[in-house]
Design brief:
alpha/beta; Aspartate Aminotransferase, domain 1; Aspartate Aminotransferase, domain 2; 2 domains; 36% helix
């Protein structure tokens, strides 16, 4: 009999029934330290009291009206994002893939409105991940995601991540934009060099292209800054945001400058559920917490401590761990054994992690993680590596 839930995921055989902070409890009573955060989503941990209170309060007032009417929560969240970023405007949706789709539509609409309708192609990076829709798997360009979904959506050209010469050589008369992740997450926690990101900005300006950053995974404090591109002192024209923005509640956003968004007028894009009052109540509270004085500095501090601990483990277990990658609380272990085997062992020992490309295990604790939990996680990693290393 075919499963009642479509079998599109290789799920671990564990079900969780409650969570608190950095911990989850399974239905059979086991406790797990969550260093996966639902793939960098539960930025403030599980059942953060302020998020719970905000959602409960809004749930008792109003859930949904559609975007046929003003939604004051959208206006407040957009104002917070605009105040703290390069952007002048925001569009709200439900997921990272939707946010990237909005970015891609905006790119085409911008060039059409400015007299260049033939400019529609987007230069992307190999190893990228931008979502699971037909357009976003084409933008990601990975064969494992594209297989079986031919014909591939046209309009994307791929060059090696970090290779500016290859990118410049790929620019042609139909090129409209550059789309990259400041840190490739699914691709294996591969960080873009700050100078590379700055040169992307200069190249986009030189050729009249829009620069689009996918900060779905890196955004909302994951790297110790509100957005990862801030480390390089550079800003895009358009940016996709999701995951941590809702702290576990489905919400995404496309941020843009007024110039880039000039043609996004009534009817050009839309979403039935996007930015509904429930999502906005949670997102507004997430931003209030993350933007409190000292919060991001603490993420950077504790991320440095975790990185140092992982570096020590790599030095102690070089036969199992080849390299430690990443920044802030977006870290990865490049494995010499199968990353899925190590993850299964860690799961059995009470630590949740996330797989990534290039045989990497992602370490993505909630941003509210504390020293004792870092030490506990490092201890589980050490014990597990001892078990798998001859």
């Amino acid at each position: 009999m075919f499963p009642v839930v479509m079998p599109t995921y290789a799920r671990a055989d564990v079900a969780f029934e409650r969570g608190e902070g950095a911990y989850l409890w399974s239905s059979d009573g086991r406790r797990f330290l969550d260093f996966g955060s639902g793939v960098a989503v539960t930025a403030l941990g599980h059942c953060h009291p302020r998020l719970v209170a905000a959602l409960r309060e809004q749930a008792g007032k109003l859930w949904h009206t559609s975007n046929m009417y003003r939604i004051p929560g959208q206006e407040r969240v957009a104002a917070k994002l605009v105040e703290r970023t390069f952007a002048d405007t925001a569009f709200f949706c439900n997921s990272g893939a939707e946010a990237v789709e909005c970015c891609l539509k905006m790119v085409r609409k911008y060039h059409d409105a400015t007299g260049n309708p033939g400019r529609y192609r987007v230069i992307c990076a190999t190893g990228a991940f931008h979502g699971r829709t037909l357009a976003t798997i084409a933008a990601g360009g990975q064969e494992k995601h594209l297989k079986g979904f031919d014909p591939v959506v046209d309009g994307f050209d791929h060059v090696p991540y970090g290779n500016l010469n290859a990118l410049r050589a790929a620019i042609g008369p139909e090129t409209a934009a550059i789309l990259v992740e400041p840190v490739q997450g699914e691709g294996g926690i591969v960080a873009g060099d700050p100078d590379y990101l700055r040169r992307l900005r200069a190249t986009a300006d030189e050729y009249g292209l829009l620069l689009v950053f996918d900060e779905v995974q890196t955004g909302i404090g994951r790297t110790g800054r509100l957005f990862a591109h801030e480390h390089a002192g550079v800003a895009p024209d358009v940016m996709a945001v999701a995951k941590g923005l809702g702290g576990g509640f489905p919400v995404g956003a496309c941020l843009a400058t007024a110039k880039a968004a000039q043609a996004m007028v009534a009817g050009s894009h839309g979403s039935t559920f996007g930015g509904n009052p429930l999502a906005m109540a949670v997102a507004e509270t997430v931003l209030e917490v993350v933007l409190e004085p000292g919060f991001l500095a603490e993420v950077e501090r504790i991320g440095t401590a975790l990185r140092a601990g992982l570096d020590r483990l790599q030095a102690a277990f070089p036969a199992a761990i080849e390299e430690v990658r990443g920044t802030g609380l977006m870290l990865g272990l490049k494995c010499r054994m199968a990353n899925t085997d190590l993850m299964a062992r860690l799961l059995a020992n009470g630590l949740l992690t996330v797989a990534a490309g290039d045989n990497v295990v992602r370490i993505l604790p909630p941003l509210i993680v504390r020293e004792a939990e870092i030490e506990e996680g490092l201890d589980i990693l050490s014990r597990t590596l001892s078990q798998v290393t001859p």
